[in-house]
Each structure stands twice: as structure tokens, then as C-alpha cells.
Amino acid sequence: MGRLEGRCAVVTGAGNGIGRGVAIRLAAEGARVAAMDIDADGLAVTASEIGSACMPIEVDVANDDSLKRAASEVESTFGALHVLHANAGISRRGLASDCPREAWDAVLAVNLTGTYRTIQTFFPIMRDSDGHRAMIATASVQALRGSAWTVAYDASKAGVTGMVRACAHEFAAYGITVNAIAPGPIDTQMLGVGDSEARRTRLAERVPLRRLGEPENIAGAVMFFATSDSAFVTGHVMPVDGGLIMNAPGTAYRTPEERGK
């Protein structure tokens, strides 16, 4: 029997990448999962991999009416909510000096406002549910270290970390934990390496563990927050980055032995 048997979960951005990996893991642990994404085709793949434990719902987290319809479906079908992973996100490259306003607005609408509205919309269902209840947001290691080329993304994810701490203060009164995961370079479509082994190698060289992460690595962290193992942890931002945060941006990581050569 899985550790989430009898539990109900919502995962946004579940049509691919991290969200798909998390939805699959939660279902494998016994949860009924409402997998949500704006990408209907990707969502269908996720649902087919999970099977009957999955309720796919096409959702645009930047649209309040879409979120409200999804919450109504979750409440009428599941009647409870124990795990919410607000994971939906997008990225647009651009320097602070020339990032187009449209790109800035689009990224913040999904990553920051969309995450906030997801938490706000599903909070009443979780508040009225029993047992361990956990909200987990996807931030980014970029919120903690920054990069010249991703100003909108970095700003949006930094906003997520502040919002998570504010929600953790407020929702503690209801026994709900609120935490964030800050992924490093995870080998997903959003990372943008495609079939470029050269780019993949360059990114991996910056990570002390010398490899890119996998969605399953993030799913493991989500599982920690989703279970009572983390019942006394709230307002925390957990980097899951292979040690990237320890390395200077844009440089290859060198071990102590390599530095001594």
C-alpha cells in the first residue's frame, strides 16, 4: 500500500516534465490525482500513463474562470484535497535591458499570479479536508542565484518564494503546510537542450554532481512534503539542484582536487 492511499492531489503543469513526473509518483503512492495543464495532448499522455487514478483537467492557471471550474470539478469528484502542487510555469529568454513587456507579463501571469491564484482557489477545499495537508509550489534555483538572460523568469520565481512564506504564516492556523521546491537544471522540455549534447554537457558541468536532474528527483522532494514526514516543516524553500546553488553563475564547477591542480 502506498503512503498516499486514500489521499487526493492536484498537480498543475502535469502535461509534461516535472508535473508529469510528480503526478505519476503521487498516483503510484496511492493518491487520486487531478492532473491539470493547458496542453491537452500532453495531459492525455500523462493520464494514459497513470490510468484510472488520474482525472485530467484542461486548465489555464492564468485564467480565473478556468481555475474555478477545475476546483469545482475536484470538489465534486474527490470531495477533499490533501496535496496541491502548484507547478505550472513558462519561461522567456530576455535581458533586463531589453526584455519585451509582453514576455514579462506572460511569465508573471503564469508563474507568479497563476501560482497565487491556484493556491487561493484550492485553499477552501484543502481547509475543509482532514489529515496532513500540504501545498507545494515550484520555485527555481534561479530565484536564489539569478541569471542575466532570464530576468522575467527569475523575478517570477523569487516572487513565488516570498508568497509561499506569506501563505505558510497564514495557513498554519489551519494545519496546512506551505513549502516550495527550487529545481536546478532538470532534463525537461522547458530546459531547452533538445538533442544538443553539447549544451547538455555545458549545463551538467556547472552542477557539482555533474549531471542534469530528472523529474523523478523533484517528485521525491514533493513526496516528502506530501506526507507527514514533513508535518513540522513549513515556509521552507528546498533547492533540488545537484548543488548548483554553491557554484558561481555561468561557470563550470571545479572540485577541490581540480582547483589544486
Provide a descriptive summary of the structure in words.
The protein is built from nine helices and seven strands; from the N terminus they run E-H-E-H-E-H-E-H-E-H-H-E-H-H-E-H. With 261 residues, the protein is an alpha/beta fold. The chain has one domain: NAD(P)-binding Rossmann-like Domain (Rossmann fold), CATH 3.40.50. Strands 3-2-1-4-5-6-7 form a seven-stranded parallel sheet, sandwiched between helices. Helix 2 links the parallel strand 2 and strand 3. Helix 1 packs across helix 8, helix 3 packs parallel to helix 4 and helix 4 packs parallel to helix 6. It is globular and about 55 Å long.
Primary descriptors:
261 residues, alpha/beta, Rossmann fold, seven-stranded parallel beta sheet, 44% helix, globular
